[in-house]
Amino acid sequence: MPEEIMLEARDIAVLFNQSKGFARIFGGARRSDSALHALDGVSLSLRRGESLALVGESGSGKSTFANVLVGRLAPAAGQVHFEGEHIGAERSISHRRRIQMVFQDPYSSLNPRMTVRRAIGELLRVHRIVPPSEIDAELVRLVNLVGLDEEVLDAYPGQFSGGQRQRLAIARALAVRPDILVADEPVSALDVSVQATVLNLISELQRELGLSVLFIGHNLSVVRSLCQRVAVMYLGRIVEVADVDEIFDNPKHPYTRALIASIPRMHRTIEREPAIQGDPPSPINLPVGCRFQSRCPLVQDRCRAEDPALRLVSATPTAGGEFEDHLSACHYAEELV
Ligand SMILES: Nc1ncnc2c1ncn2[C@@H]1O[C@H](COP(=O)(O)OP(=O)(O)OP(=O)(O)O)[C@@H](O)[C@H]1O
Ligand SMILES: [Mg+2]
Question: What Gene Ontology terms describe what this protein does at the molecular function level (predicted)?
Protein backbone atom coordinates (compact mmCIF):
# COMPACT_ATOMS: atom_id res chain seq x y z
CA MET A 1 0.00 0.00 0.00
CA PRO A 2 1.48 3.40 -0.90
CA GLU A 3 2.29 5.52 2.11
CA GLU A 4 0.02 8.43 2.79
CA ILE A 5 1.33 11.81 1.71
CA MET A 6 0.71 14.56 4.26
CA LEU A 7 2.29 17.53 2.56
CA GLU A 8 3.28 17.82 -1.04
CA ALA A 9 5.11 20.61 -2.82
CA ARG A 10 4.62 20.61 -6.58
CA ASP A 11 6.92 22.51 -8.88
CA ILE A 12 7.54 25.39 -6.50
CA ALA A 13 9.33 28.45 -7.87
CA VAL A 14 10.35 31.49 -5.83
CA LEU A 15 12.01 34.55 -7.34
CA PHE A 16 13.37 37.43 -5.33
CA ASN A 17 13.73 40.70 -7.12
CA GLN A 18 17.26 41.95 -6.72
CA SER A 19 18.84 45.37 -7.15
CA LYS A 20 16.13 46.98 -9.22
CA GLY A 21 18.09 50.22 -8.79
CA PHE A 22 21.14 48.65 -10.40
CA ALA A 23 19.14 47.45 -13.34
CA ARG A 24 17.93 50.98 -13.85
CA ILE A 25 21.36 52.55 -13.45
CA PHE A 26 23.00 50.25 -15.95
CA GLY A 27 20.20 50.87 -18.37
CA GLY A 28 17.88 48.44 -19.97
CA ALA A 29 18.44 45.30 -17.90
CA ARG A 30 15.12 43.53 -17.95
CA ARG A 31 13.35 42.78 -14.71
CA SER A 32 14.01 39.06 -15.15
CA ASP A 33 17.73 39.77 -15.49
CA SER A 34 17.90 40.74 -11.86
CA ALA A 35 15.61 38.05 -10.46
CA LEU A 36 17.21 35.72 -7.97
CA HIS A 37 15.96 32.18 -8.52
CA ALA A 38 15.76 30.94 -4.95
CA LEU A 39 13.65 27.90 -5.88
CA ASP A 40 13.10 26.52 -9.33
CA GLY A 41 10.65 23.68 -9.86
CA VAL A 42 10.95 22.06 -6.45
CA SER A 43 8.71 19.05 -5.82
CA LEU A 44 8.89 17.05 -2.61
CA SER A 45 6.45 15.01 -0.52
CA LEU A 46 6.38 14.47 3.22
CA ARG A 47 4.66 11.24 4.27
CA ARG A 48 2.61 10.64 7.37
CA GLY A 49 4.81 9.86 10.37
CA GLU A 50 8.11 10.13 8.53
CA SER A 51 11.17 12.15 9.27
CA LEU A 52 12.57 13.63 6.08
CA ALA A 53 15.82 15.59 5.94
CA LEU A 54 16.45 18.46 3.55
CA VAL A 55 20.15 19.24 3.29
CA GLY A 56 22.24 21.58 1.18
CA GLU A 57 24.75 24.35 1.60
CA SER A 58 23.98 27.91 2.61
CA GLY A 59 21.87 29.79 0.08
CA SER A 60 20.54 26.67 -1.65
CA GLY A 61 16.95 27.65 -0.80
CA LYS A 62 16.11 25.46 2.20
CA SER A 63 14.57 28.19 4.36
CA THR A 64 12.75 29.65 1.38
CA PHE A 65 11.21 26.22 0.79
CA ALA A 66 10.27 25.87 4.48
CA ASN A 67 8.59 29.27 4.35
CA VAL A 68 6.54 28.25 1.33
CA LEU A 69 5.45 25.02 3.06
CA VAL A 70 4.22 26.79 6.19
CA GLY A 71 2.52 29.58 4.22
CA ARG A 72 4.87 32.41 5.22
CA LEU A 73 5.82 32.97 1.59
CA ALA A 74 3.67 32.74 -1.54
CA PRO A 75 5.54 31.02 -4.40
CA ALA A 76 5.70 32.58 -7.88
CA ALA A 77 4.65 29.20 -9.29
CA GLY A 78 3.69 25.77 -8.02
CA GLN A 79 1.37 24.50 -5.34
CA VAL A 80 1.35 23.07 -1.84
CA HIS A 81 -1.09 20.26 -1.08
CA PHE A 82 -2.02 19.18 2.42
CA GLU A 83 -3.63 15.74 2.68
CA GLY A 84 -4.32 16.01 -1.05
CA GLU A 85 -5.99 19.41 -0.84
CA HIS A 86 -4.43 22.46 -2.48
CA ILE A 87 -3.65 25.13 0.10
CA GLY A 88 -2.49 28.63 -0.86
CA ALA A 89 -0.28 30.91 1.22
CA GLU A 90 -3.46 32.30 2.82
CA ARG A 91 -4.07 29.49 5.28
CA SER A 92 -7.09 28.66 7.34
CA ILE A 93 -6.56 28.67 11.09
CA SER A 94 -6.73 24.89 11.03
CA HIS A 95 -4.01 24.56 8.40
CA ARG A 96 -1.84 27.05 10.25
CA ARG A 97 -2.27 24.99 13.40
CA ARG A 98 -1.53 21.66 11.77
CA ILE A 99 1.76 22.73 10.12
CA GLN A 100 4.17 24.22 12.64
CA MET A 101 7.69 25.52 12.24
CA VAL A 102 10.69 25.58 14.56
CA PHE A 103 13.31 28.17 13.60
CA GLN A 104 17.07 28.29 13.87
CA ASP A 105 16.83 31.17 16.30
CA PRO A 106 14.36 30.21 19.04
CA TYR A 107 13.80 33.91 19.77
CA SER A 108 11.84 34.16 16.53
CA SER A 109 9.04 32.06 17.98
CA LEU A 110 9.09 33.29 21.58
CA ASN A 111 7.82 36.70 22.59
CA PRO A 112 10.48 38.14 24.94
CA ARG A 113 7.87 40.20 26.83
CA MET A 114 5.62 37.31 27.78
CA THR A 115 6.09 34.56 30.30
CA VAL A 116 5.99 31.06 28.91
CA ARG A 117 2.68 30.49 30.69
CA ARG A 118 1.08 33.48 29.02
CA ALA A 119 2.50 32.89 25.55
CA ILE A 120 1.72 29.18 25.26
CA GLY A 121 -1.47 29.48 27.37
CA GLU A 122 -2.79 32.00 24.85
CA LEU A 123 -2.21 29.54 22.00
CA LEU A 124 -4.05 26.79 23.88
CA ARG A 125 -6.99 29.16 24.37
CA VAL A 126 -7.13 30.51 20.83
CA HIS A 127 -6.95 27.07 19.26
CA ARG A 128 -9.17 25.54 21.97
CA ILE A 129 -6.76 22.70 22.47
CA VAL A 130 -8.06 21.94 25.97
CA PRO A 131 -10.92 23.40 28.09
CA PRO A 132 -9.88 26.55 30.01
CA SER A 133 -9.86 24.65 33.31
CA GLU A 134 -7.20 22.27 31.97
CA ILE A 135 -4.81 24.84 30.54
CA ASP A 136 -2.46 24.90 33.55
CA ALA A 137 -2.15 21.13 33.59
CA GLU A 138 -1.57 21.10 29.83
CA LEU A 139 1.20 23.69 30.18
CA VAL A 140 2.96 21.48 32.73
CA ARG A 141 2.58 18.48 30.43
CA LEU A 142 4.05 20.41 27.51
CA VAL A 143 7.14 21.69 29.29
CA ASN A 144 7.73 18.24 30.79
CA LEU A 145 7.39 16.76 27.32
CA VAL A 146 10.41 18.77 26.18
CA GLY A 147 12.38 17.94 29.31
CA LEU A 148 11.82 21.12 31.33
CA ASP A 149 10.42 21.64 34.86
CA GLU A 150 7.21 23.51 35.48
CA GLU A 151 9.14 26.41 37.08
CA VAL A 152 9.96 27.62 33.57
CA LEU A 153 6.32 28.54 33.03
CA ASP A 154 6.60 31.80 34.97
CA ALA A 155 9.89 32.95 33.46
CA TYR A 156 10.61 35.04 30.36
CA PRO A 157 12.51 33.72 27.29
CA GLY A 158 15.51 35.94 28.12
CA GLN A 159 16.09 34.01 31.33
CA PHE A 160 16.88 30.74 29.56
CA SER A 161 19.91 29.24 27.88
CA GLY A 162 19.85 28.70 24.12
CA GLY A 163 19.10 25.00 24.53
CA GLN A 164 16.22 25.68 26.94
CA ARG A 165 14.82 28.31 24.62
CA GLN A 166 14.84 25.88 21.73
CA ARG A 167 13.06 23.30 23.92
CA LEU A 168 10.44 25.95 24.67
CA ALA A 169 10.12 26.79 20.98
CA ILE A 170 9.46 23.09 20.36
CA ALA A 171 6.89 23.00 23.19
CA ARG A 172 5.22 26.04 21.67
CA ALA A 173 5.05 24.38 18.25
CA LEU A 174 3.68 21.16 19.75
CA ALA A 175 1.15 22.97 21.97
CA VAL A 176 -1.33 23.22 19.12
CA ARG A 177 -0.97 19.49 18.35
CA PRO A 178 0.31 19.78 14.79
CA ASP A 179 0.59 16.92 12.32
CA ILE A 180 3.67 18.39 10.70
CA LEU A 181 6.76 20.01 12.11
CA VAL A 182 9.14 21.89 9.82
CA ALA A 183 12.38 22.33 11.75
CA ASP A 184 14.71 24.77 10.00
CA GLU A 185 18.23 24.20 11.32
CA PRO A 186 16.87 23.92 14.87
CA VAL A 187 20.26 23.46 16.51
CA SER A 188 22.64 25.59 14.41
CA ALA A 189 22.51 28.44 16.89
CA LEU A 190 23.15 26.21 19.91
CA ASP A 191 26.36 25.15 21.64
CA VAL A 192 27.71 21.92 20.21
CA SER A 193 27.31 20.33 23.65
CA VAL A 194 23.51 20.70 23.60
CA GLN A 195 22.90 20.15 19.89
CA ALA A 196 22.63 16.38 20.18
CA THR A 197 20.16 16.50 23.08
CA VAL A 198 17.81 18.82 21.21
CA LEU A 199 18.06 16.72 18.04
CA ASN A 200 17.31 13.57 20.01
CA LEU A 201 14.36 15.29 21.61
CA ILE A 202 12.88 16.14 18.21
CA SER A 203 13.49 12.60 17.06
CA GLU A 204 11.83 11.04 20.13
CA LEU A 205 8.84 13.37 19.86
CA GLN A 206 8.49 12.58 16.19
CA ARG A 207 8.18 8.88 16.97
CA GLU A 208 6.09 9.21 20.14
CA LEU A 209 3.59 11.64 18.65
CA GLY A 210 3.60 10.19 15.13
CA LEU A 211 4.57 13.57 13.71
CA SER A 212 5.70 14.11 10.15
CA VAL A 213 8.92 16.08 10.37
CA LEU A 214 10.85 17.96 7.72
CA PHE A 215 14.25 18.43 9.23
CA ILE A 216 16.42 21.05 7.55
CA GLY A 217 20.16 21.05 8.07
CA HIS A 218 23.54 21.77 6.54
CA ASN A 219 25.20 18.72 7.84
CA LEU A 220 24.52 15.37 6.26
CA SER A 221 26.17 13.47 9.12
CA VAL A 222 23.65 14.56 11.76
CA VAL A 223 20.63 13.54 9.72
CA ARG A 224 21.75 9.95 9.46
CA SER A 225 20.43 8.91 12.86
CA LEU A 226 17.42 11.23 12.71
CA CYS A 227 15.73 10.68 9.40
CA GLN A 228 14.37 7.92 7.21
CA ARG A 229 14.73 9.78 3.91
CA VAL A 230 16.98 12.51 2.65
CA ALA A 231 16.47 15.17 -0.02
CA VAL A 232 19.52 17.09 -1.19
CA MET A 233 19.13 20.65 -2.45
CA TYR A 234 21.53 22.54 -4.67
CA LEU A 235 20.98 26.07 -5.91
CA GLY A 236 17.20 26.07 -5.76
CA ARG A 237 16.67 22.51 -6.99
CA ILE A 238 16.32 19.11 -5.41
CA VAL A 239 19.16 17.05 -6.90
CA GLU A 240 18.74 13.75 -5.07
CA VAL A 241 16.14 11.96 -2.90
CA ALA A 242 16.53 8.51 -1.36
CA ASP A 243 16.29 6.38 1.74
CA VAL A 244 18.88 7.56 4.27
CA ASP A 245 21.12 4.48 4.13
CA GLU A 246 20.97 4.46 0.36
CA ILE A 247 22.05 8.13 0.24
CA PHE A 248 25.13 7.34 2.31
CA ASP A 249 26.01 3.99 0.74
CA ASN A 250 25.11 4.66 -2.86
CA PRO A 251 24.80 8.39 -3.62
CA LYS A 252 23.72 9.05 -7.19
CA HIS A 253 24.63 12.71 -7.55
CA PRO A 254 28.17 14.13 -7.55
CA TYR A 255 27.07 16.89 -5.18
CA THR A 256 25.78 14.40 -2.62
CA ARG A 257 29.03 12.46 -2.96
CA ALA A 258 30.96 15.65 -2.25
CA LEU A 259 28.81 16.37 0.80
CA ILE A 260 29.48 12.89 2.13
CA ALA A 261 33.18 13.20 1.39
CA SER A 262 33.29 16.38 3.46
CA ILE A 263 31.99 14.59 6.56
CA PRO A 264 34.80 13.87 9.04
CA ARG A 265 36.46 10.55 8.27
CA MET A 266 35.01 8.58 11.19
CA HIS A 267 31.50 8.76 9.72
CA ARG A 268 32.47 8.30 6.11
CA THR A 269 31.27 5.36 4.11
CA ILE A 270 32.73 6.34 0.75
CA GLU A 271 36.09 7.96 0.09
CA ARG A 272 36.26 8.70 -3.56
CA GLU A 273 36.36 12.41 -4.21
CA PRO A 274 37.80 15.30 -2.27
CA ALA A 275 35.40 17.65 -0.49
CA ILE A 276 33.54 20.09 -2.71
CA GLN A 277 35.58 22.95 -4.13
CA GLY A 278 34.67 26.54 -4.93
CA ASP A 279 31.41 28.43 -4.67
CA PRO A 280 28.13 27.75 -6.42
CA PRO A 281 27.23 30.03 -9.34
CA SER A 282 25.05 33.05 -8.61
CA PRO A 283 21.33 32.28 -8.44
CA ILE A 284 20.84 35.51 -10.41
CA ASN A 285 22.89 34.30 -13.34
CA LEU A 286 22.40 30.57 -13.70
CA PRO A 287 24.41 28.56 -16.23
CA VAL A 288 22.91 26.75 -19.21
CA GLY A 289 22.84 23.02 -18.48
CA CYS A 290 23.49 21.49 -15.08
CA ARG A 291 23.78 23.89 -12.16
CA PHE A 292 26.53 21.81 -10.62
CA GLN A 293 28.75 21.75 -13.74
CA SER A 294 31.31 24.32 -12.52
CA ARG A 295 32.10 22.24 -9.42
CA CYS A 296 31.53 18.76 -10.71
CA PRO A 297 34.63 16.56 -10.94
CA LEU A 298 32.86 14.36 -13.50
CA VAL A 299 31.51 17.09 -15.81
CA GLN A 300 30.97 16.19 -19.49
CA ASP A 301 29.94 18.22 -22.54
CA ARG A 302 26.30 17.20 -22.17
CA CYS A 303 26.23 18.76 -18.67
CA ARG A 304 27.06 22.17 -20.15
CA ALA A 305 24.23 21.94 -22.66
CA GLU A 306 21.32 20.04 -21.08
CA ASP A 307 19.69 20.78 -17.76
CA PRO A 308 19.19 17.40 -16.04
CA ALA A 309 15.74 16.70 -14.60
CA LEU A 310 15.19 14.91 -11.28
CA ARG A 311 14.34 11.35 -12.33
CA LEU A 312 13.95 7.86 -10.97
CA VAL A 313 17.27 6.01 -11.10
CA SER A 314 16.43 2.94 -9.00
CA ALA A 315 14.11 1.51 -6.37
CA THR A 316 16.02 0.19 -3.42
CA PRO A 317 15.02 -2.06 -0.51
CA THR A 318 14.89 -0.23 2.84
CA ALA A 319 15.44 -1.37 6.42
CA GLY A 320 11.64 -1.66 6.71
CA GLY A 321 11.49 -4.20 3.88
CA GLU A 322 9.81 -1.80 1.45
CA PHE A 323 11.16 -0.38 -1.78
CA GLU A 324 12.09 3.26 -1.92
CA ASP A 325 12.46 5.40 -5.03
CA HIS A 326 15.91 6.79 -5.55
CA LEU A 327 15.80 10.03 -7.56
CA SER A 328 18.74 11.90 -9.00
CA ALA A 329 19.21 14.94 -11.23
CA CYS A 330 22.48 13.83 -12.83
CA HIS A 331 22.72 12.79 -16.49
CA TYR A 332 25.25 10.18 -15.46
CA ALA A 333 23.67 8.91 -12.24
CA GLU A 334 23.78 5.29 -13.37
CA GLU A 335 27.49 5.55 -13.99
CA LEU A 336 28.31 6.69 -10.44
CA VAL A 337 29.44 3.64 -8.55
N1 LIG B 1 13.98 37.99 1.31
C2 LIG B 1 14.92 37.74 0.39
N3 LIG B 1 15.22 38.65 -0.55
C4 LIG B 1 16.15 38.41 -1.49
N5 LIG B 1 16.85 37.27 -1.58
C6 LIG B 1 16.60 36.33 -0.67
C7 LIG B 1 15.63 36.50 0.37
N8 LIG B 1 15.60 35.38 1.13
C9 LIG B 1 16.50 34.54 0.60
N10 LIG B 1 17.11 35.10 -0.47
C11 LIG B 1 18.11 34.46 -1.34
O12 LIG B 1 17.53 33.22 -1.78
C13 LIG B 1 18.50 32.20 -1.80
C14 LIG B 1 18.05 31.07 -0.90
O15 LIG B 1 18.10 31.51 0.45
P16 LIG B 1 17.67 30.61 1.67
O17 LIG B 1 17.73 31.46 2.88
O18 LIG B 1 16.39 29.94 1.37
O19 LIG B 1 18.85 29.54 1.71
P20 LIG B 1 19.19 28.45 2.82
O21 LIG B 1 19.43 27.19 2.08
O22 LIG B 1 18.15 28.45 3.88
O23 LIG B 1 20.57 28.97 3.40
P24 LIG B 1 21.15 28.84 4.91
O25 LIG B 1 21.69 27.45 5.00
O26 LIG B 1 22.24 29.88 4.94
O27 LIG B 1 20.05 29.12 5.88
C28 LIG B 1 19.82 32.86 -1.37
O29 LIG B 1 20.52 33.21 -2.54
C30 LIG B 1 19.38 34.07 -0.61
O31 LIG B 1 20.36 35.09 -0.67
MG1 LIG C 1 18.21 28.78 5.94
Answer: ATP binding
Q: Which amino acid is at 191?
A: D
Q: What is the DSSP string of 71-130?
A: TSS--SEEEEEETTEEE-SS--HHHHHHEEEE-SSGGGGS-TTS-HHHHHHHHHHHTT-S
Q: How confident is the model at residue 26 (pLDDT cuts 50, 70, 90)?
A: very low
Please give the DSSP secondary-structure letter assigned to residue 2: P
pLDDT number for residue 29: 43
Cα separation of 34 and 246, whole Å? Answer: 38
For residue 61, report the distance from its CA to the centre of ligand 1, in Å. 6
Residue 282 inside a domain? The answer is: yes
User: Strand order in 35-47's β-sheet?
Assistant: 35-47, 5-17, 77-82, 85-87
Whether the CB of 38 sits within 6 Å of ligand 1: yes
Domain ranges, residue 241: 232-337
Give 37 Cα–ligand 1 centroid separation in angstroms. Answer: 10
Ligand 1 atom 28 nearest Cα: 59
Q: Is the predicted pLDDT of residue 245 greater than 80, yes or no? A: yes
Question: Alpha-carbon distance 135 to 141, whole Å?
Answer: 10
Structural domain contains residue 253:
yes
Residue of the CA atom closest to atom 26 of ligand 1: 58
Q: To the nearest whole number, what is the mean pLDDT of the chain?
A: 89
Mean pLDDT of 4-27: 77
pLDDT of residue 139: 98
- Measured in angstroms, how far is the CA atom of residue 149 from the centroid of ligand 2? 31
Quick one: pLDDT band at residue 211, thresholds 50, 70, 90?
very high
User: Do residues 107 and 172 touch, judged by C-beta distance below 8 A?
Assistant: no
The total number of structural domains that make up the chain: 1
Q: Is the pLDDT of residue 24 over 50?
A: no
Residue 168 lies in a domain: no
